[in-house]
Design brief:
Layout (H helix, E strand, L loop, with lengths): L11 E7 L9 H17 L4 E5 L9 H15 L5 H4 L34 E10 L2 E5 L6 E3 L8 E9 L2 E7 L11 E4 L4 H7 L4 E11 H14 L2 E5 L7 H6 L5 H4 L2 E4 L11 H15 L2
Parallel strand pairs: 1-2, 1-10, 2-8, 5-7, 9-10, 9-11
Antiparallel strand pairs: 3-4, 3-6, 4-5, 6-7
Helix pairs in contact: 1-2, 1-8
């Protein structure tokens, strides 16, 4: 059986995770391991954006825990050869060695110029700039030249070209590669209701054990996915479901979403952890709209 390429989805897939996602585990080590499971799920199922919303907005300051989750997920998504440039040593990354590798298309392992292909895409960081010429670190023996003025320290996507044994780069949009190119992490410092409104015309899917069974709505949901250009999937917190979280904004779950779905019908445990719901839900969406 042939292995299929990890192509970009036809629609942009975003997920909304609560800032309190890591709150149930105490130690930084265990929080890091849990974030690793989440990051792998995002990459395996080709998520484009992950929003970290404030599920306890107005009740307590969640900036610190949201920042930790955002840092760990961003670190995972960054190619290994760029991490030292983009992430200085800090306490939140004390156990970063426990985070599993993503092995996505934008995490290449080749580190020699003679191993790259003409037209290959890579992520890089601008090292320096002089006039209209920038030097960009793309994980090879030395930075490559890009004929465009770019801000030092900026992370960029480049298309490589080989001429006379040398490698050059062309700055391109992150959306140009046809393969899945990782996820963006957005630390959204507002409540869930505002996030949903911000996403405008996205198809909004809420996960809840009180929702319609996925068995009953799968065909209709698949049709909606095929018609959508953007999909936003909402997940509750370790202690509260989406209904309770939105009720503090005087919002009804069914009125701000297009679907409220139970993606684990007949669950064998009293509760389902957020990261477990993440895997189950994204796996189903991947089946309905690959």
């Amino acid at each position: 059986m042939a292995v299929t390429e990890p192509l970009r989805r036809r629609f942009r897939l975003s997920v909304a995770l609560p800032a309190s996602l890591l709150s149930e585990v105490r130690s930084l080590r265990d929080k890091t391991v849990k974030a690793g499971f989440v990051g792998r799920a995002l990459a395996v199922f080709r998520v484009d954006d992950v929003f970290i919303y404030r599920d306890l907005y107005g009740l307590r300051d969640q900036d610190r825990e949201a920042s930790l989750l955002a840092t760990l997920l961003s670190y995972m998504e960054t190619p290994q050869y760029l991490r030292k440039r983009l992430f200085p040593l800090s306490k939140p990354l004390s156990y970063a060695g426990l985070l599993p590798p993503l092995r996505t298309p934008h995490h290449p392992t080749a580190s020699r110029s003679d191993m790259v292909e003409d037209g290959e895409f890579r992520e890089g960081v601008v090292v320096s700039c002089r006039g209209s010429l920038s030097l960009v670190d793309v994980g090879l023996e030395k930075p490559i030249k890009v004929h465009k003025r770019l801000r030092p320290g900026l992370r960029v996507t480049v298309r490589l070209s080989k001429k006379s044994g040398s490698v050059y780069g062309e700055h391109v949009s992150r959306t140009v590669p046809r393969l899945y190119w990782g996820y963006r992490v957005i630390d959204f410092d507002k409540p869930l209701g505002i996030l949903v409104k911000t996403c405008g015309d996205a198809l909004v899917i809420a996960t809840s054990k009180y929702g319609d069974s996925i068995v009953d709505v799968s065909e209709r949901l698949a049709q909606s996915l095929r018609r959508s250009s953007r999909v936003l999937v909402l997940f509750g917190s370790p202690r509260e479901g989406l209904r309770d979280i939105l009720s503090r904004e005087s919002l009804e779950l069914s009125r701000v979403t297009d679907y409220v779905v139970n993606t684990i019908p007949h669950q064998g445990t009293e509760t389902v952890r957020t990261e477990e719901a993440l895997y189950a839900t994204l796996a189903i969406l991947n089946l309905l709209a690959p």
